Every structure is written in structure tokens, then in C-alpha cells.
Amino acid sequence: MSTLSRLNGAQRELARLEKLSNGSFADTIAMLSFKQHVEDLQTQALAEFKDTDLQFIDFRLSAPHLSDGSAPLSLVAKLTSATKKLILETVLQTIDLAKHKKGLFSELERGLDLRLNAIQPGSSKLIISAKATPDLLDHNAATSALESIFSHIGSADEISKLGSGPAHALLDIFKASAQEKADLEIVWRTPLGKTRHWNASKDSLRGFIKTLSKIEDSPADPKEIFGAISLISEKKIELKDVSGEKVSIFIDADKVSEIKRLRLGEHAKLICSARKKRSKSKPYKIELKLESISSIE
User: Fold this and answer.
1) Of residues 281 and 273, which shows the higher confidence score?
2) How far apart are the C-alpha atoms of 3 and 41, rounded to whole Å?
3) Of 173, 226, 277, 290, which is least surrounded by CB within 10 A?
């Protein structure tokens, strides 16, 4: 059994013992001994981790109903898809698509190798891993993306500077945590021992959500969207973004010939203008109109 598996088991057992403890002297001594065992396993796991080629993003959600190392599947799905969108679109923001080579999108996905690595107790802690190995130019896409994310996550205005896609992904992460009425901590760990932390209470998350929603709904700035084309017509195209969400974009007549060169399933970057329109189901909706498109196949 791996050290990480033993650590996960020990943390679950510690959470169980803490619930059963009656506060007696004997229980207190036993608890201190078991906590030391858990700390020893954490030290051993960290030493082994430093020998890997992975880096980790930890999401710790703290709430009374999230204390046994389990989490609703809907929460796991929201966090994993939003994290994929956040990292991949942050990487794509830095790439000159005019100079890209064929197969860029698939190559990026393979290079990042994002995975759900573990769910641990201590509230509910989701661990997502990404490759940390640098390329021949001593560059790692995930590392660069995470550096940028943690440099801008301090305020809603800074988050908006990441671009519309990454900002929307962070908004989804904040909403997922807020729906569980949980405090949120995000930690980035690298094999070199470097660690970055960010945390927000559930009240602070509500403030982030309110401000980011206003920025997102503003039609003033163009929207950058990355995804795979799923429908092409003379009036609109649809695509699935990197988190699997369907997006509809309307087309003016002068863009039709450009759109006809696309094929279904092709990955592309779209620059869209946005405008507010009346909606029956809510006060208004945001309608996107295509301004330009670049293939990232």
C-alpha cells in the first residue's frame, strides 16, 4: 500500500475518532498519539511527492456537512471541469495562435495531463494534479498558468485581467463552493517545495461572485472563447468550451464564408462582442456575436 493511501486511511480514521471522543484523559492521549502518526505519514508522503514530476492544486471546502472526506458528485464535477477550463484557457491566453503548429489543442491537453488525484478528509479536500516536467526550453505550461492565476486571484478586478474564460472558470469554482455554504482554500504545491495559498470565507466568496458576475455580464469588453465546433449554420455556430458547456454565437453575413471553412469538432478561438437582450426567463440575457475566429487544431 502506498504512503498516500495509508495517509488517506489514517486521516479518515482520525476524523472518525474525533467524532467519537468523549474528551476523557485517555481519549486525549490516544488522539495525540494518532495525530502524530498522521503527521509522520504526511512528512513521508511529502518526501515521496518531491521525487515525482507532478504538481498539485488542492481545493479544501470547509463546512459542517463536508467533514468525512466525501463530496457530492455534482460538486466534484463542477470543480474539476472549472479547473480544467481555468488552467487550459489561461495557457491559451499566452499563445500566439498565428504561429501555432497543427495539433496544438491536443498537445496542450496531453502536456497538462490534468487529473483528479484524490479526495481527502479535513473537510472535503479535492486534489488535482498536473505535470510539472519542463519542456526543452525549461518551460512548463501548467506552472506558468498557475503563477498567473495566483498572481491575480486577490481581487475581482485582478481576476478579470486573466481574460473572460479564466475569470468565468473562477466564478464557477466560487459558486460551487458557495452553494455548499463552505469556506474555500486553494493551495498550489510543486515538487520543488514551493507552495502558494489563497483562501476566502463563504461571506467573502459571495462578494467575489457578485462583482465577477457584474463584470461577466458587462458587454463592454470582447469575450474570448475556446472550444470545439459542434454546429455550423448561416446564422450561428455552437461550440463546446473546454469545460463542456455549450455556447451559441451569432454570425453576420460577412462572416459566413469564413465560417464555412470550419469543420465540426475543430478547436478554435473565437473573439465575440456581447450585448444584453430581453429574456422571458430572467431580466436579460447576453447574446454573443462573432468578430473573429482562429483555428487551434
Assistant:
1) 273
2) 7
3) 277
Let me know the angle formed at the C-alpha of 128 by 125 and 131, rounded to the nearest 5 degrees: 150
CB 140 within 8 A of CB 57: no
Q: Classify residue 60 by its DSSP letter.
A: E
Query: Which residue ranges make up each domain of the chain?
Result: 55-217, 223-295
Task: Check residue 222 and report its DSSP letter.
Answer: P
- CA–chain centroid gap for 256, Å, is 34
pLDDT at 134 (0 to 100):
66
The model's confidence at residue 17, banded by pLDDT at 50, 70 and 90, is confident
3-state secondary structure at position 227: strand
Computed on alpha carbons and rounded to an integer, the radius of gyration of the chain in Å comes to: 22
290-294 long-range contacts, CB within 8 A, separation 24+: 290/237, 290/249, 290/250, 290/251, 290/252, 290/255, 290/259, 291/222, 293/255, 293/258, 293/259, 293/262, 293/268, 293/269, 294/97, 294/98, 294/268, 294/269
For all residues of the chain together, what is the average pLDDT? Answer: 80
DSSP state for residue 130 in the 8-state scheme: E
Cβ atoms of 120 and 69 within 8 Å: the answer is yes
Q: Can you tell me which residue has the cell 465540426?
A: 264
pTM across the whole model:
0.70
Tens digit of pLDDT for each residue in 190-204? 876 678 999 999 999
Spell out where the chain has E strands: 54-62, 115-120, 124-131, 183-189, 195-200, 223-232, 236-241, 246-250, 267-278, 284-295
- How far is CA 15 from its chain centroid? 27
- Per DSSP bridges, beta strands 195-200 and 183-189 are antiparallel
User: 223-295 architecture in CATH?
Assistant: Beta Barrel (2.40)
